[in-house]
Amino acid sequence: AKDCHRGTAICFAPEHEAQLRSHAVIEQALRSADLETEFSLVYQPIVDVAEDRVDAYEALARWTSPTIGTVSPGDFIVVAERSGLILDVTRALLRRALADMATWPAEVRLSFNLSAHDIASSACRADIMEIVRQSGIAPGRIIFELTETGLMRDLVDGRDALTELKALGVGLALDDFGTGYSSLSYVHKLPITKLKIDRSFVTNICEDTASLNVIRAIIDLCRNLGFDCVVEGVETVEQMLLLRSAGCRFMQGYLLQKPLPRDEIEALGGSRLPV
Ligand code: C2E
Ligand code: CA
Ligand code: CA
Ligand code: CA
User: Fold this and answer.
1) Helix (H) or strand (E) run with residue 91 in it
2) Residues 40-50: b if buried by 16+ CB within 10 A, e if exposed
3) DSSP per residue, 147-200
4) Residue 9 has pLDDT above 50, yes or no
5) Residues near 19 by beta carbon (within 8 Å), at least 6 away in sequence
6) Atom nearest to 60 CA in ligand 1
7) Are 55 and 46 in contact (CB under 8 A)?
């Protein structure tokens, strides 16, 4: 970015641009955003490597604002949470994802990210349940993903909210597992069905046997507690092979597939495995 002066305009690398668009600017654009046209969903497969099939697609939100351009979910979700707009975003995106599922094979599930703010609101929980009912999609085909950081602000409330959702028949995944603190002290107290091991554990497994041992330990933990276990952020063949030899069955990451728009995932067929 240093050599980037042109006339009086100064160019910024994308990471600087994101900082320039302060939360206030993002919030203003979000308040006037048309959720139906400015937001879209892309889908990334969670692959069962034992059976070489797609177990689920995770829906990931994308936003391009006509006024401030493309904003990453890492930025706009935080702003949406702080401003209370997340509930509207969640409802609109959940409706869309469930509609998109209409053309998927019945054995393929949807993994959908919820914010802790969503489930903290009993009105929003009720809406979520109503949206699921109205979609006609079997609740057993839906997994809601929640991050531990959000959930753990209040363990008891979080647990009760999850219990209410789970009664609908959906699966519940604890996302980014291992990035919060004291995960082990409460993980067995939550009504979850799945853990997603954060990609930071995967990054170094080829160089660092300790990281692989941590993943092995979490896989063991999941087996003992009866949880499914997904490893996120698998980017290389070497990582995939090591993880497979460590007993990891469900994987997600750029190696298997990047997140793609609905129409592009539908066109995919055949093996998911690069080796
Ligand atoms: P997440 O739920 O942990 O989603 C995984 C993120 O990792 C996604 O980023 C995905 O594109 C990225 N990813 C997948 N495979 C790889 C890989 O192999 N390597 C690397 N480096 N990254 C990989 P994305 O789409 O930018 O989303 C970021 C976060 O924003 C998500 O993290 C999630 O916490 C949040 N988010 C996205 N969509 C929604 C949504 O609809 N609702 C809510 N509440 N949160 C969302
Ligand atoms: Ca997720
Ligand atoms: Ca994650
Ligand atoms: Ca994350």
Assistant:
1) helix 86-100
2) ebbbbbbbbbe
3) EHHHHGGGHHHHHHHHHHHHTTT-EEEEEEETSSSSHHHHGGGS--SEEEE-GG
4) no
5) none
6) 38
7) yes
Hey, which residues does 146 pair with through a beta bridge?
Answer: 174
- What's the helix, strand, coil split of the chain in %, to 5? 50, 20, 30
CA 173/CA 168 separation, integer angstroms: 15
pTM of the model: 0.92
3-state secondary structure of 234: coil
- The label of the residue with tokens 């209410």 reads 164
ipTM: 0.98
User: Looking at the DSSP assignment, which residues form a beta bridge with residue 226?
Assistant: none
Query: Sign of dihedral through CA atoms 205, 199, 185, 250?
Result: negative
Separation of 176 CA from ligand 4 center, angstroms?
6
Q: Is 115 in the pocket of ligand 1 (CB under 6 A)?
A: yes
Chain center to CA of 137: 20
Q: How large is the average pLDDT for residues 261-271?
A: 77
- The mean pLDDT of the chain is 89
Q: Is 227 exposed, middle or buried (0-12, 13-18, 19+ CB in 10 A)?
A: buried
Amino acid letter, 231: V
Is the pLDDT assigned to residue 116 strictly greater than 80?
yes
Residue with tokens 């979490």: 218
- Decide: 168 and 140 in contact? Cβ < 8 Å: no
Candidate of 26, 60, 87 to mutate for ligand 1, largest count of ligand atoms within 8 Å of Cβ = 60
